[in-house]
Specification:
With 800 residues, this protein is an alpha+beta fold. Helix content is 26%, strand content 28%. The strands form 11 sheets. A 7-stranded mixed sheet has the order 27-31-32-36-35-34-33, sandwiched between helices. Strands 5-4-3-6-11 form a 5-stranded antiparallel sheet, with no helix packed on it.
Length: 800
């Protein structure tokens, strides 16, 4: 939003303040001045007249010009194609500085001809290209014949001596988009009076030929004024200058007047060519759909819910956004229908975003407009059309207002102000703020009843008033104090476990990955095997791209896509993990995913072989992590994935379960998935951390090293192929009770020496008593009990 200080000074006297000081005060008070800029800049400038223009003797494109600047005649070499004699121009004298091109003008000799200055273009003086035509961009600026030679303020003569504040207001301060409301804001900050009287001179009004009807609650007020006999022509210079300083190009006098009123009052207007209308009856509706050809000559598909101004059921305007092409004003327009309305900002924003169609009007309605200014805006526009467009007939306004504008008083006590702010402001100091802000108030028993003006839509509750008080009286009144709390900060159990997981994996040499929570529909259902990933996917209503339109239900696809990226950057040996939330239609939970790919070892002088990652590397990593979390193997089961699992390699992957709850999966990625994601052999794991956080973990207890020797027995057992080694280990520990110190798998054999239905599993059992040395007879007896239990529960027999 650009604010012209020259225009602002018509409503408030800011002559005592330098632009930088004024910008600082406004910013500190809460409305950020993001940048100070100038329409044009240059020192030692003067208006001159080219007396003669001769071709340079040693160039085919340069000219040697004699230029009268009033006090003297300068010889200047000029390269512009449009320079000629009898021309009024802008001259920068020797010693001048042009900030736009960072150029200091020096006396020079150009191919043997002396040059004492430069004839300037507006582009070289810093005027934005969008305000210039092709001739102005390509050459020097030619002034009008009446331009006074010797005038040392050519920028002022052209209306370019303006300073612009580029504002960046917060979303709730839509009022400062209006110059008049911004003047009120500056007046409140500086304690100055605003000259807010707006003169409206209208001829005797004719009876309105228009009628209006309400067809949607999203348009609580709507007004139309007819103006006839206008002449389309160029706008007066003062109006062109104001629009240019506000960042808008001049179109013609009628369009420019509409824009001027919008900038001044913050009320967008739309002007229809009355002769192109199908009828004189307007209705705003939100239950229609169809194609709409807008002023930008683009066709848009409107949906039910979009606010549309209709005329004889034809689409005349996309309310608050853009008018229809068929009713646009052109050079032949003579009769106007001018609209001022209050459109629902939320509806305007949705339509504008969906169609990717933004306009100045939509910005105002989205931020909020003061509906009490609508009739004033129409009258002011009509008055200016009479004065600058030769309008012959002005009609009365036809309008409706569904709800009268009333605002309830906000109660605020002096005690509450000082309690919230930690200050000691008096009632008179607080009252002074309300006066400066034009807030109506009453004070009874140290309690204010405040009614803010209608343009301040952001003032709704007492805390809003407190904010106004401190920003105007000064934040320096807030004392610096340390927060007082009786609580001592600590980590929750979830935070402790999350930190433990991260530290453990980083210590094992893995890198943490961060990826988008949004994923493509192409991958959104892949690897959703955990119980928490079974719900319906959540799709964004208005995604920026299709590639990021679904909230992910699992982390594995994200890591595989990261692996793909690294693969094509020649990084195939990966060990990464991610801790993040996943989502379905019913809940969001936290997951951990781990990915290993490539080789686990690299070639070196110590080893001539490389070992690629496999299921057991990942299983060891996960088992160690679960043990760190206090979850022993006896509390969960590893169950092979089914043969028809589309995501994991059968025989090389397992689900992790407790009862019927599947809270983890680990294993090798299915070849079809490797092909889909275009990655090398990869093993992945995903754990439902939200479930793990709830599990009670076994406390870590210190056990002294035994003073007595252990006895080790190795056995080879023949079992059915369906029997798992983990099952045998559980039987051994159960039968041996506390005297079985450890049991581990040494070997699994399937081959020619075994029956087709059998396999051999070799176990190493370690017996240890913490209190004494076990005798052979005691170990033999205990070992026999273990073998009997294995035979009874798993039909395991010793291999001969």
């Amino acid at each position: 939003m650009d604010i012209s200080l020259k225009w602002l000074s018509q409503y408030i006297d800011i002559s005592a303040y330098e632009p930088t000081d004024l910008a600082e005060k406004i910013t500190i008070a809460g409305v950020e001045v993001e940048r100070i800029k100038y329409l044009a800049q240059g020192s030692k400038l003067v208006i001159g007249e080219v007396i003669s223009c001769e071709k340079h003797p040693d160039s085919d494109h340069l000219h040697a010009c004699q230029v009268d600047i009033g006090s003297e005649i300068l010889q200047i070499v000029c390269g512009a194609a449009n320079v000629k004699a009898k021309q009024k121009v802008i001259v920068s004298k020797v010693g001048a500085y042009l900030p736009a091109v960072n150029l200091t003008i020096k006396k020079g000799n150009i191919r043997g001809v002396e040059s004492n200055g430069m004839i300037c273009s507006l582009l070289e003086l810093g005027v934005d290209k969008k305000f210039l035509n092709e001739e102005q961009i390509a050459g020097i600026e030619e002034l009008d014949p009446l331009a006074p030679v010797g005038n040392e303020d050519p920028l002022g003569y052209l209306g370019l001596d303006d300073v612009i504040f580029e504002l960046k207001p917060t979303p709730n301060r839509g009022d400062v988009l209006s110059l008049l409301s911004f003047a009120y804001e500056v007046g409140a900050i500086l304690g100055l009076k605003v000259k807010d009287k707006i003169e409206v001179k209208l001829p005797k009004l004719a009876k309105s030929s228009y009628t209006v009807g309400q067809g949607s609650p999203k348009c609580p007020s709507f007004a139309i004024k007819g103006v006839s006999g206008v002449v389309i022509k160029e706008s007066p210079k003062w109006l062109q200058n104001i629009l240019r300083s506000s960042g808008l190009r001049s179109i013609n006098n009628v369009v420019d007047i509409g824009n001027y009123v919008m900038l001044l009052l913050g009320q967008p207007l739309h002007m229809y060519d009355a002769k192109k209308l199908a009828s004189r009856h307007f209705v705003v509706k939100d239950n229609l759909a169809g194609d709409f050809l807008a002023l930008d000559e683009q066709k848009y598909k409107l949906e039910v819910g979009d606010l549309i101004v209709t005329n004889a059921d034809r689409f005349s305007c996309l309310a608050g956004v853009m008018g229809a092409y068929e009713t646009m004003i052109d050079e032949n327009t003579t009769d106007l229908a001018i609209e001022a309305a209050l459109f629902d900002g939320i509806s305007v924003r949705r339509t504008s975003q969906r169609l990717q169609l933004n306009s100045d009007s939509s910005t105002y309605f989205i931020r909020g407009v003061d509906e009490t200014r609508a009739l004033l805006a129409l009258d002011l526009a009509a008055s200016l059309l009479v004065e600058y467009a030769e309008a012959k007939l002005v009609e009365e306004t036809s309008s409706y207002a569904a709800v009268a504008v009333t605002k309830e008083a906000i109660k605020l006590s002096v005690e509450k102000v000082n309690k919230v702010l930690g200050t000691s402001f008096t009632a008179s100091e607080i009252a002074s703020v309300f006066k400066r802000l034009n807030f109506a108030y009453k004070l009874e028993a140290s309690v204010f009843s405040v009614v803010p003006p209608n343009y301040r839509k952001d003032i709704q509750i007492a805390e809003d008033l407190i904010e106004e008080i401190i920003r105007l009286l000064g934040f320096e009144h807030l004392k610096s104090t340390y927060p007082v709390t009786e609580n001592v900060g600590y980590l929750s159990m979830e935070q402790k476990k999350r930190r433990l997981i991260r530290d453990y994996l980083l210590a094992q040499g893995l890198d943490e990955a961060l990826s988008y929570s949004l994923i493509s529909p192409k991958y959104s259902e892949d690897f959703a095997v955990l119980s928490a990933s079974k719900g319906e996917s959540v799709k964004l209503l208005h995604p920026l791209t299709e590639e990021h339109s679904i909230m992910r239900k699992t982390l594995v696809p994200s890591l595989l896509l990261a692996s793909n990226y690294n693969h094509y950057h020649k990084e195939d040996d990966l060990a990464i993990f991610e801790l993040s939330k996943v989502y379905n239609s019913k809940e969001e939970v936290e997951h951990l995913a781990i990915l290993l790919s490539g080789n686990i070892t690299s070639l070196s002088w110590l080893s001539s072989k490389q070992e690629s990652v496999n299921y057991y590397h990942l299983k060891g990593l996960v088992s160690g992590l679960l043990k760190k979390l206090g979850i022993e193997p006896s509390r969960y089961q590893l169950v092979r994935v089914s043969k028809d699992d589309p995501y994991y390699h059968f025989g090389r992957a397992a689900l992790i379960k407790t009862g019927s709850k599947v809270w983890g999966v680990l294993g090798e990625v299915h070849p079809r998935m490797l092909k889909k994601y275009d990655v090398l052999k990869t093993v992945v794991c995903e754990l439902d951390l939200s479930y793990l956080y709830q599990l009670k973990s076994s406390p870590v207890r210190f056990v002294s090293p035994s003073l007595y020797p252990a006895v080790v027995r190795d056995i080879a057992l023949v079992v059915a192929k369906k029997v798992e080694a983990q099952q045998l280990i559980k039987i051994v520990k159960k039968a041996g009770k506390s005297l079985v110190n450890a049991c581990q798998v040494l070997d699994v054999y399937e081959g020619k020496l075994m029956a087709d239905s059998d396999k051999s599993i070799a176990l190493r059992i370690t017996y240890l008593d913490q209190n004494k040395t076990l005798t052979d007879s005691e170990v033999n007896a205990l070992h026999e009990e273990v073998l009997k239990a294995l035979e009874k529960e798993a039909q395991a027999v010793l291999r001969s």
